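Quick one, probably user error.
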């Protein structure tokens, strides 16, 4: 036995020496592998060698740090195990499985690391018993859920070798299940790298392109490049990959996406042809993605124009089955070939790039001298020459090319728009050329809207029915071409206005059908939307006023709803161009908002918000004859309630009250047909969010109304009715994310809105409806969620303010500086804490079940608020309030404990605990109400009476419960307590001493006090149980889930 031990020690020494030698460098590994195999071959017993080998590796399982020395040992051991498949590998796997399930995390880590290294190195033809391999796979599945991230990473790496096996399909499902739940970035990266190519995994990998970790996003694009051919992905996923990757904020991720685009998709799948790549992206649907791809390829120099390749080849005599013969006799021998959408986008992007590059090089040549200037000038000339070679020879050719594509029908609508945008690269300085182009622009403006005739013979407009051509992008292309052709100051407005007068003539004579009305109003909207200045208004004031009276106002009263909608939009644009909004315009917009169907009310609402933010709310109110000089806006404390169903156009209502009443109205109807994201609530929410966000720019809006608006927006955001209004939810989520951090005054507004929000959301109080137990529980959960949301906003830090400073080079630079001035009491968490405490104390000791749950929810927010050391007055006041808050929630022991901890924190913050808070100081913090001014003076503006002479005390902790059993006779008596005894309980509870520093006489009654407290608590529990039973019958109980929500 001794000889065997000696031999084993000698063998361990040889193995240890080899392992020590390989720790210095990877270069010695091959030579040392041969030496270790020689040692194993000389060993008389395989079991003896394995025993010595495993014992030598035991110190490695205790090494916690991932040093380079340890990593070399792991790789050497793994390589040795892979090359010895005569039973040694299976024994070694069994040895490692013991370490993989060890209690020590370091041992588990090393075991999983070595297993993953062995599996990744294992050749495909290596024979390993199925039983051992199954044990390894099952063990790694368990380790995927390990609490240590690095262990999970190596377990996933081990399983990635088997993820494609049909016998282990559950591994793939495990990966897909873990990916969205994993918190560690490195583990998510390992999962992404381990996923095989398939339809199920492609969506999961593309979703990781939005991961918060840069390494995970980069890994996602790496996997997409190496495992997913371009043809295997759907068009939507292709566009999504490029849209996110090319615009990623990380340069490393964008470079990885660019590598995917260039080296794999363009080079391998499209043979370097950009047009072929654009065909895979469906540029008609994903135009912005196609533009981004072209810009990236052009900047990278991957787009080469061969000789003879230009737009001119589409205006040639070459025959093709897609050619169309021009009808003009002057072009009898000319044939035009129609462009595909990808080709049109390609040429438009290329020409725009060449024009920008030529202008940039020309500017650089003008800014430099000598040889450098000559080089820049030559480059600019080359770019310009290439652009001239690509574009049509004459403007007439260009016009003919665009006309043929327009006449070809809707299939070539996209190509027609791209060619219209191409007109910005042409030169229209010559009068003859400009005349041809001007005639073409006139033809575009006079072209009627497209429509379809339905079964009943009625016409149905194709497009949005608002913009020229039924498409905003088409109208934008036409206006850009028209402005290029008519570039002189005021010429664009003059030309469009003449077209409007011509189209408006049948409308004035009342002989136009609704299609003509819509066409005329669409051109009018194009004019009003693109007018650069007040030149049109000032130069043609009379004609402009006539346009309002003869076209826009009658259109807003037209019998056809589509005509009303586009006319109301034009009224809003018209009002912005006016120096002051006219009376007829404002009255019509207010009437359309209050009385019209939802589709028209939305347009009127947008127009009213635009007018109010552009001209100012007082100016809009003055336009309808309201004299607000006798009504000081700063003293306005609340909104005037309005019933929109009873309003008329002559009602003297302020615009702000009218718009706010829209938030109060719940019968607006459903969203716009075909656009479920847009509704009147969404427009109102977005408008009021803009007003609050830029409140400093609108001093005419009383500051006392800000918190009412904010409270309404928070209610709207958490309302169950608005869950399907995605546009509203998205807008408000972004608004709330930044609102509180932009200004300390915004935090003050949020503090004032907290209690009103809880008032309106909590069921069963202040007249709020209750409902079944499930309904009440859901309402309470939403209210608690809203309270936590407001707390999070309140505790968000303020943004650093940008300040302009003069840099070293003399330029004005913006530097971010933190405001050193601390927010006031009204803007801090102290003010919110005092508001919540006074709200809790506003309820009587005997509360309904709804009131008890409401107070409990408020207190759970109260204990999460923090006080600053400089607010000594607020600290002293809060301690006094807490002494009374304890009594309101004395039945909830866990909440009382948290309140006591808060009281102790406040006690530790007091600098002068011996100084008492005077009554005047307390009133000054609460705020004094001045009746004749109808406003609060200073501070929080809370109407609350507090006896400042009452001491601030924390209730004594009851004495330990007696071990003496309670007699059954007394228990029965408590269970049958009458309502009169419940009333007496209140007086008993108020007698519990809560004065600190009690005298010796009082201390003699401590045991009696503890007994009374114990009896009171038990009676409370019995009474609460009885009330809960009553509440269950009244459908106002709180579910267990709701209670859990409060305790979170």
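Nope, works fine. Designed sequence:
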């Amino acid at each position: 036995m001794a000889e065997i031990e000696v031999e084993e020690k000698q063998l361990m020494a040889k193995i240890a020496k080899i392992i020590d030698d390989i720790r210095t460098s990877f270069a010695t590994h091959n030579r040392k592998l041969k030496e270790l195999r020689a040692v194993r071959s000389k060993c008389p017993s395989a079991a003896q060698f394995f025993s010595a080998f495993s014992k030598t590796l035991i110190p490695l399982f205790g090494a916690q740090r991932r040093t380079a020395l340890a990593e070399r040992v792991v790789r050497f051991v793994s390589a040795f195990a892979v090359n010895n498949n005569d039973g040694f590998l299976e024994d070694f796997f069994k040895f490692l499985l013991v370490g993989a399930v060890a209690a020590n995390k370091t041992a588990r880590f090393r075991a999983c690391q070595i297993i993953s290294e062995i599996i990744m190195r294992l050749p495909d033809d290596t024979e390993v018993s199925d039983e051992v391999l199954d044990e390894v796979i099952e063990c790694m599945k368990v380790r995927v859920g390990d609490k240590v991230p690095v262990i999970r990473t190596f377990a996933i790496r081990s399983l990635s070798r088997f993820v494609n096996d049909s016998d282990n399909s559950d591994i793939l499902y495990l990966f897909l299940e873990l990916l969205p739940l994993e918190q560690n970035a490195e583990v998510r990266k390992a999962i992404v790298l381990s996923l095989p190519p398939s339809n199920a995994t492609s969506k999961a990998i593309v979703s990781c392109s939005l991961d918060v970790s840069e390494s995970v996003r980069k890994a996602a694009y790496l996997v997409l490049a190496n495992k997913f051919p371009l043809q295997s992905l759907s068009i939507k996923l292709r566009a999504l990959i490029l849209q996110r990757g090319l615009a990623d904020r990380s340069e490393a991720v964008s470079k990885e996406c660019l590598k995917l685009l260039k080296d794999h998709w363009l080079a391998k799948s499209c043979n370097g042809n950009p047009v072929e790549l654009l065909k895979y992206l469906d540029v008609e649907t994903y135009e912005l993605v196609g533009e981004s791809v072209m810009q990236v390829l052009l900047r990278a120099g991957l787009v080469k124009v061969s000789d003879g390749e230009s737009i001119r080849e589409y205006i040639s005599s070459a025959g093709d089955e897609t050619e169309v013969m021009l009808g003009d006799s002057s072009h009898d021998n000319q044939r035009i070939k129609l462009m595909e959408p990808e080709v049109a986008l390609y040429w438009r992007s290329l020409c725009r790039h060449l024009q920008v590059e030529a202008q940039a090089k020309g500017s650089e040549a003008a800014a430099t001298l000598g040889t450098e200037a000559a080089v820049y000038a030559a480059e600019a000339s080359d770019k310009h020459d290439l652009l001239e070679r690509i574009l049509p020879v004459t403007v007439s050719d260009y016009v003919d090319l665009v006309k043929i594509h327009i006449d070809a029908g809707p299939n070539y609508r996209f190509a027609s728009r791209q060619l219209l945008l191409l007109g910005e690269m042409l030169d229209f300085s010559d009068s003859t050329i400009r005349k041809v182009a001007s005639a073409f622009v006139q033809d575009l403006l006079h072209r009627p809207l497209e429509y379809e005739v339905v079964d009943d013979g009625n016409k149905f407009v194709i497009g949005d029915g608002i913009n020229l051509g039924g498409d905003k992008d088409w109208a934008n292309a036409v206006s850009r071409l028209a402005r290029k052709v008519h570039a002189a100051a005021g010429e664009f407005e003059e030309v469009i206005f003449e077209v409007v007068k011509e189209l408006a003539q049948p409308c004035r004579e009342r002989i136009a059908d609704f299609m003509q009305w819509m066409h005329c109003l669409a051109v009018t909207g194009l004019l009003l939307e693109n007018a650069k200045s007040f030149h049109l208004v000032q130069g043609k004031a009379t004609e402009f006023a006539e346009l309002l009276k003869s076209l826009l106002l009658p259109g807003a009263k037209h019998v056809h709803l589509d005509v009303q909608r586009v006319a109301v939009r034009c009224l809003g644009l018209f009002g912005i161009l006016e120096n002051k909004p006219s009376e007829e315009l404002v009255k019509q917009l207010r009437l359309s908002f209050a009385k019209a169907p939802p589709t028209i009310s939305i347009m009127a609402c947008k127009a009213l918000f635009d007018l109010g933010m552009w001209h100012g709310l007082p100016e809009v109110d003055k336009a309808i004859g309201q004299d607000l000089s006798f009504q000081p806006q700063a003293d306005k404390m609340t909104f005037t309630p309005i019933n929109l169903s009873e309003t008329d156009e002559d009602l003297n209502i302020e615009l702000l009250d009218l718009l706010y009443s829209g938030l109060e109205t719940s019968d607006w109807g459903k969203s716009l047909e075909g656009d479920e994201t847009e509704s009147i609530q969404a427009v109102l929410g977005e408008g009021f969010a803009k007003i609050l966000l830029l409140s400093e720019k609108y001093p005419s809006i009383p500051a006392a109304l800000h918190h009412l608006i904010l409270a309404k927006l928070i209610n709207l955001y958490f309302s169950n009715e608005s869950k399907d209004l995605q546009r509203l939810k998205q807008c408000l989520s972004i608004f709330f994310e930044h609102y509180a951090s932009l200004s300390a005054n915004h935090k003050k507004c949020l503090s004032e809105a907290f209690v009103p929000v809880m008032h309106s959301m909590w069921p069963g109080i202040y007249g709020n409806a209750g409902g079944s137990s499930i309904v009440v529980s859901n309402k309470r959960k939403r209210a608690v969620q809203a309270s936590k949301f407001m707390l999070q906003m309140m505790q968000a830090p303020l943004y650093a303010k940008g300040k302009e400073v003069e840099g070293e080079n003399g330029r004005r630079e913006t530097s971010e500086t933190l405001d050193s001035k601390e927010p006031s009491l009204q803007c801090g968490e102290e003010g919110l804490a005092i508001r919540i405490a006074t709200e809790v104390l506003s309820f009587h000791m005997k509360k309904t079940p709804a009131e008890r749950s409401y107070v409990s929810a408020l207190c759970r927010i109260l204990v999460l608020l923090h006080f600053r050391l400089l607010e000594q007055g607020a600290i002293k006041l809060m301690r006094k309030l807490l002494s009374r808050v304890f009594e309101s929630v004395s039945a909830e022991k866990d909440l009382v404990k948290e309140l006591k901890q808060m009281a102790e924190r406040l006690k530790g913050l007091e600098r002068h605990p011996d100084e008492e808070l005077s009554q005047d100081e307390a009133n000054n913090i609460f705020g004094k109400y001045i009746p004749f001014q109808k406003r609060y003076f200073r501070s929080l503006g809370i109407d609350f009476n507090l006896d400042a002479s009452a001491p601030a005390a924390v209730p004594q902790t009851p004495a330990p419960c007696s071990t003496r059993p309670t007699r059954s006779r007394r228990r029965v008596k408590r269970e049958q307590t009458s309502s009169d005894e419940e009333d007496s309980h209140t007086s008993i509870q108020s007698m519990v001493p809560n004065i600190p520093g009690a005298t010796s006489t009082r201390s003699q009654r401590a045991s009696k006090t503890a007994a009374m407290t114990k009896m009171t608590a038990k009676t409370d529990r019995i009474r609460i149980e009885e009330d809960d039973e009553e509440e269950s019958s009244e459908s106002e109980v709180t579910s267990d889930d709701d209670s859990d929500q409060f305790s979170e």
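Residues 877 and 922 are 7 Å apart (CA to CA).
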